[in-house]
Amino acid sequence: MTGTETMDEGRLIAGRYRLERRLGGGAMGVVWLAKDELLDRTVALKQLLLTVGLSKKDAEEARKRSSREARLAARLQHRHAITVFDVADDEDGMPVLVLEYLPSQSLAEVLAARGPLPPSEVARIGAHAASALAAAHAAGIVHRDVKPGNILLSEDGTAKITDFGISRAADDGTLTGSGRFAGTPAFLSPEAARGEKPTAASDVFSLGATLYAIVEGRFPYGENENQMALLYAAAAGRFAPPKQAGPLTAPLERMMRFAPEERPSMAEVAAELEQLATPAEEKRRRGGALIWSGAGAAVLVAAAVTALLLVNKGSDGQNAAPPASVSQQPPTSAPQPAPSSTSSQAPSSSAVPPPAPPPPATTDPAQFVRDYYAMMPGGTAVGWTKLSPAMQERVGHDYYLRYWGGMSKFEVTTAPHQTGPNTVESELEFVQNGRHFHELHRLSLITVNGQLLIDSDSV
Q1: Looking at the DSSP assignment, which residues form a beta bridge with residue 22?
Q2: Contact in structure between 101 and 85 (CB atoms under 8 Å)
Q3: Is the pLDDT score of 324 beyond 60?
């Protein structure tokens, strides 16, 4: 039965999924709208297809490997990725993916219907897709087939990426036959086109090529229908510079650099695209908040430095001057009134008392997370120090600031509670960049030098 569509309308899969109508299909599978009769919800089912002519042994290996890849994809939970709810088997033993159903159009369909999209809209779509891909990369998952057909755009403008893991099975010869490469030539990175193993940097290039096509209205490697010609062009990394991308031009060129190590990380891409997609008025509002937050932090730093100077009487102070940004008034030589017990003058900076010592660090994971969320979204200066070095490296400071800075409402709806030795879960409700979210967050904690730190945050 390999290579053929074996499911039909009304059929019951795995004893619970009732097929309603076919939504579409391609070389790697057929997608159906279905009803989960156990949970009474609408889902999408993707039946994976094998290539005609595989031997019995190869077909069996194909089933096993594609099932493993599908289950790997099911580990990713992100608001901008189509969720894999379940992996069932059809009557032939082939895995059937049970997916979140999103009423939507693919970017390929949007481009065909509307033509090129404006740079600001492309930046917003790209930021959504990049955030999901960054989460996948952090989990060790490389998509391998980022293209307009695999990014869905819902009615409210939310973008979600789909088909994680499927192209990897194809690359291993399980779905499309031995000797074929994974991905679509028009959006392949040079190294993938040359047959090298795709990496996270390859996904960065492919997302850049996808956004290039959406904003320019043409493929990066030209409109040649000859797939081998496209493959050669991709291997050489030859593409015409974008002409309609406007502020997206520089980010796209960085994402599509020939050498993988010269491309930004996907997390950096997400942060930059989100910045480009943010309206100017909102940027000004966020900027003002950050300035005040930064000024407050600078004052605290200045006070702490002064306290150290008072304690260390042997220091001349020349290497511990407060930051220039704290001193707003030019020095004056005018005589100052002598201090007295009735003077209304504010004390000089040299007389600022040392700050109160911080409370001892809690060793209770749930309390630690409660304290962390209690200072958000405005307490990013301190919040950043609550992340482990590995988490800081994965997230990036700029993205961290933009993530929390984009929130106009933040509420913990289910109090943090410990679910494992180093795991705390809580439900959050927030409005970010004008969109409402309700999410279950699972934080993993580690202890460094006697202090708890957040090492991962999964949704």
Answers
A1: 32
A2: no
A3: no
Please give the CATH topology (third level) of the domain spanning 12-277.
Transferase(Phosphotransferase); domain 1 (1.10.510)
Peptide bond into 359 cis (omega under 30): no
CA 396 to chain centre: 12
365-458: CATH topology is: Nuclear Transport Factor 2; Chain: A, (3.10.450)
| Residue-wise pLDDT tens digits, 102-158 | 998 999 999 999 999 999 999 999 999 999 999 999 888 889 889 999 999 998 889
Q: CA 149 from chain center: how many Å?
A: 19
Nearest Cα to 64, choosing from 89, 82, 39, 81?
89
Q: What is the pLDDT of residues 47-66, one digit of tens each?
A: 877 666 677 787 777 777 77
Whether residue 52 contacts residue 2, with contact meaning beta carbons closer than 8 Å, is answered with yes
Contacts of 2 (CB under 8 A, 6+ apart): 49, 50, 51, 52, 53, 54, 59
Task: Write out the residue limits of the CATH 3.10.450.50 domain(s) in the chain.
Answer: 365-458
Binding site listing for ATP: 46
Helix (H) or strand (E) holding 446: strand 435-448
- The residue type of 340 is S
Kindly list the catalytic residues: 145
In DSSP terms, which residues pair with 99 in a beta bridge? 44, 84
CB-CB contact of 73 with 141 (8 Å): yes
Binding residues: 46
Q: Which of 270, 275, 253 is nearest to 137 (CA)?
A: 270
What pTM, to 2 d.p., does this model score? 0.59
